[in-house]
Amino acid sequence: MKKLLFLALAASACAVGHAATYNFDPLHTHVIFEIDHILSTNRGRFDKKDGVVQFDPQAKTGSVSLTVDTSSVNTGVAPFNRTLQGKDFFNVEQFPTAKFVADSFVFNGDKVAEINGTLTMIGKTNPVKLKAVRFNCMFNGMLKREVCGGDFEAMINRSAWGMEWGLPRFADSVKLLLQVEAIKQE
After folding, report:
1. Can you give the C-alpha Rg of the chain in angstroms?
2. Among residues 147, 137, 62, 136, which one has the least CA distance to residue 105?
3. 65, exposed or middle or buried, with CB in 10 Å at 0-12, 13-18, 19+?
4. Considering the entire predicted model, what is its pTM?
5. 155-182 per-position pLDDT tens digit
6. Domains (ranges, CATH) in the chain?
7. What DSSP line would sit under 52-101, residue for residue?
């Protein structure tokens, strides 16, 4: 009888699950920004980024740590990249990285709906809410592991981090777009 009770408890403990660690896949993770440029939209991305997610879908909890190398900003126009790397914008000499940290996941049913955290950039930290446009987890047959990912977006005001050059002529509001795929670690 005790053995049967022990097996039942062990089986139920396995069914509950626990938080797993997922490392960002750099080939399938992109940090992109868009900002109004009077007649059109300027777009750019950061080519170097790294991150990790702790995720427990059954407990509906998680945490994220994403670090971006701000010197890797890439708009496709080298002079504009240098301007963005300078003191009026990312000031990469003094602040070579930006970091998003979150430990508040909001769910809609079984799906992640948003992630609430903080973005530290240029020595200032402000709250940022990432809205999940889509999110899912699946077993990847090639990797033989679970992969979770999705598309997330947020609107921020660059002036909140001290990027005030060109205001009000040029837009303050910046759209952040994150495409993330993260691989479960064993």
Report:
1. 20
2. 62
3. middle
4. 0.87
5. 999 999 999 999 988 899 999 999 999 9
6. 18-184 (2.40.128.110)
7. EEEEETTTTEEEEEEEEEGGGEE-S-HHHHHHHHSTTTT-TTT--EEEEE
